[in-house]
Amino acid sequence: MNTNDLEALKRVDPADGIPDGPLTPRELAGLQRITTRIAAEEHVAQHNGVPADVGSHRGKVRRRAVLVGAAAAVGAAGAGLAVVDPFGSSGVAMAATPPLLEAELAQGRPGKAALLALAAKAAADKTLPGDAGSHTVRMQAWYLSTAVDSKERVTSAIIPEEITRTWTSDLSGRWVVRTGQPYFPDPASHKGSVGKPGTVKGEQSWPPGKYEPMFHYPLPSDPARLLAALRMDHDLDANGPGFLTDVVTDMYKETMPAPAVRKAVLEVLAGHSGAVSLGTMKDRAGRRGRAFAVDSRYGGLPNRRVLIFDPATGRLWAKEEVLTKTAGRLNVRIPAVISYELYL
Q1: Taking the model in full, what pTM does it have?
Q2: Average pLDDT over the chain, rounded to whole?
Q3: Cα–Cα–Cα angle for 36, 47, 58, rounded to 5 degrees
Q4: Least C-beta-crowded within 10 Å: which of 116, 127, 160, 266?
């Protein structure tokens, strides 16, 4: 590469002018997802007999910024997480995508009244005081990383994750992710093979004063003030209701809101998400909660985001994302669950 080439690259550097320093929790989460996706794509390349050297034209794997839901369960096994069969002894090793939850694509009814009723339950809850000076959040997530190689072949690998985040009011904290080995589904037979169970660990620690929360705390308990606070750091108006559901889940990835804040969150959803009520629904941990769906094109393809809440406390239990009309280049069958997360 000559000097002119280098100067041209510098002029379009998207990070130019951004100061170096510790990554924010949102940046770390994105970096971790990219890292696991790259690892999966290297496995994909080897699995297909394609050289994993992405620097060569022949073996290049074009990275797609898409994660789709995995039909993998995560079980604690010693120091790590093992990929196990979530479908019992049916003989099917792993489906390419998990089955839809009951009524996940139902038409539903306007959800405003049900969300406001749940908000009242949240306000009256005495069992979950919520995080204050110390915050600890644990979640399990299942993602499917999809890659397209130089011959336009699409291959997918399932990436199970378990993430723990702890931080305190002095802005110290720790973030840990445990990732199972990629699993490669066979879309023709809905079966696949998985290597030896293993754990890829990523972690970050922050000394006092260095953790940068995704939100401004304490979170307002008034819905109008909460919405204004969310708009400070999130372009809700430009990205629409699908993005609003992601902002709510980001909140639960960082803290357990107090009852009054849980009430405000549900009231914001009631007034601005256009959600429909799906009634009661079991999440993938077997918890039966109140389910609401938001249809949008946020993320690029027509999709439905489903949020499942504890009916007694109004806390978020689970989030699902389903492709509803087209899969684009993804080798999944429509409708397809493309990601799901459990907040524990």
Answers
A1: 0.70
A2: 74
A3: 90
A4: 127
